[in-house]
Amino acid sequence: MSYGKQFEQYLDRAPVVQEALAQGLPVVALESTIISHGMPYPQNVETARLVEETVRRHGAVPATIAIIGGRLKVGLTPEELEHLGSAAGIIKTSRRDLPFVVAGRKDGGTTVAATMIVADLAGIRVFATGGVGGVHRGATTSMDVSADLDELAATDVAVVCAGVKSILDIGLTLEYLETKGVPVIAYGVSEFPAFYTRESGFKVDYRLDSPEEIAAVLKAKWDLGLKGGVLVANPIPAEFAMDKAEIDAAIEQAVQEAAALGIKGKEVSPYLLGRVKDLTGGDSLESNIQLVLNNAALAAKIAVSFVGRRAA
Q: Of these residues, 92, 165, 277, 301, which one is catalytic?
């Protein structure tokens, strides 16, 4: 059954985003769980504003995506950003949650998967985030695999991230993406980054060294009718990277504590991020902020190049 564009009845594009899309200007989608669940207040709201400004500074229009009162918002007002960062009861919203949050007229921070879905509905092809979800440790028995990975296989949006956190099984995550046919690009490096660190020990098949090269791959992929997204792994700037041994030890301790407390499912990542921040004396939060800004800058450059190629 085809529903055409009935999704439009649920979708609100901010005027600046609507105008940019109508004119064929570069737009970058931004997720909102980093605001609602990823960082403490007020750093979460401050970071969200910095990320939007970074996108603008590099020539694109930012479109932070969230759900407010059941409406799919593509571009948020300052008041909506503040609400997401400070209000209680914001629902961490992935693909499975979207119809419930919309129908219930609730507020939701969108994960990578949900942000990709809404960006695709709105006509946005490039998306910047911090890190994507993946295959969790012990997934061979728990079957705990993030919905982000299947979304990457199905939805035509390029996701710029700093890799995946080493709280996950990075090797299995890359194998899963390969099975799903998702192209993985490492930007300027030959090794897949691990969020807080530039190295993970896992090589990637494709290294590209410029936003223009990445934009060319996106255009070729979608021109060929190859459905699904592209994962662009952009390593954290070296000056903000953490010591691998230190961060691995903090993550291992946090993972063990989460297991002992019985924390599971979508509550795992927020707990681990908060606990790792505590164990590292707040250093991981500063690294998190800097890598998100770095990803926003690269995503904007890719979006600018992609729009130029599409218009040519």
A: 165
